[in-house]
Design goal:
heterodimer, A: 169 residues, alpha+beta, Thiol Ester Dehydrase, Chain A, six-stranded antiparallel beta sheet, two-stranded antiparallel ribbon, 3 helices, B: 145 residues, 23% helix
Chain lengths: 169, 145
């Protein structure tokens, strides 16, 4: 029996990037904050490009605590949605080319979100990565770390609990 | 409350670029109490299928309101920054409605201010979210680095 040749790399990349873009660009608030995602395989890094209107304390200046919180929450929700989407996409259950803002998979809903502000957010780009510590049928627990110039100097971290979207079938 | 303190708080809130970008409005100030609201804005939607505002936008409002409550507490000096903030999301805010946060700074020590807050839409009896946080109290004479 002849084995099927592997898919060309650009086909796989195009499919995965299309799925990610549909997930992010369909949400107005993510667009408003200007958050982008860098994808390496299934790993995502969220990027918040600096903008003057993200400042909360103009005297320091420092990023608004609410912006930091929102950035980490977006990173957590997209991270979780992405891991669900990834499984569906890789198993062939979902064709990402059919995704658009009106036909997105349901996103997890935030139950609670706790942000720990370790140092003030500098007027520079910020980065964040989410780690899904537990993902059950109904609930998920996610931890997020945010940093700026140095990966080791975290400026904020957060833990959140989320209600998972009902699965089809 | 102390009029001078209220004026400083008002000016401080008005000078926050991100609060202005989100059209936040200071509705009420009392001793350790603040009310700030923001209009419904399609740019802040988190779920395009329902038009519900993103939780992150609500947390920006809660954080701003918590800081304002600390600033206008009689025992706290002017400066403050958030140490931690926990938000519980009880229900989706009704699309099209204004969201109002009310924060109360219920205890202040030499270094920390404790705050609780709730957010509602136009149905004031069913909260959209509640929050609890600790804020840094910045005393100018003994600034630590």
């Amino acid at each position: 029996m002849k084995r099927r040749p592997p898919e060309p790399v650009q086909v796989i990349k195009q499919r995965r990037d299309a799925a990610l873009n549909a997930l992010i660009h369909g949400v107005p608030y993510i667009r408003y904050l200007g958050i982008e995602f860098d994808r390496r395989g299934d790993e995502l890094t969220a990027i918040l490009p600096y903008r003057d209107d993200l400042i909360g304390n103009p005297m320091l200046p420092a990023l608004h605590g609410g912006v930091t919180s929102a950035f980490l929450e977006v990173t957590a929700i997209v991270g979780m949605s992405w891991s669900i989407l990834w499984e569906q996409m890789e198993s062939g259950a979902l064709d990402p080319m059919t995704l658009d803002p009106q036909h997105l998979p349901r996103m997890p809903k935030t139950i609670d979100f706790t942000v720990d502000y370790l140092r003030s957010g500098l007027p520079r780009d910020a980065y964040a990565r989410a780690r899904v510590n537990r993902s059950g049928r109904r609930y998920a627990s996610v931890h997020v770390e945010g940093w700026q110039d140095n990966r080791a100097r975290i400026f904020a971290q957060a833990t959140g609990h989320f209600l998972m979207p009902p699965r089809d079938g | 409350m102390d009029e001078k303190k209220a004026e400083i708080t008002r000016q401080f809130i008005a000078a926050i670029p991100h609060a202005a970008a989100m059209s936040m409005r200071l509705d009420h100030l009392g001793d350790g109490v603040a009310e700030i609201s923001m209009p419904y804005d399609p740019r802040f939607v988190g779920d395009p299928q329902t038009g519900v505002i993103h939780g992150g936008a609500v947390s920006s409002l809660m954080d701003t309101c918590g800081g304002a409550a600390v600033m206008c507490h009689p025992d706290a000096p002017a400066g403050t920054a958030t140490l931690d903030l926990r938000i519980d999301y009880m229900r989706a805010a009704t699309p099209g409605q204004r969201i109002t946060a009310r924060a109360e700074c219920y205890h202040v020590t030499r270094t920390v201010a404790f705050v609780r807050a709730t957010a509602t839409d136009e149905d004031r009896h069913r909260p959209v979210a509640s929050a609890a946080g600790a804020f840094m109290v910045e005393r100018p004479a003994e600034t630590e680095t």
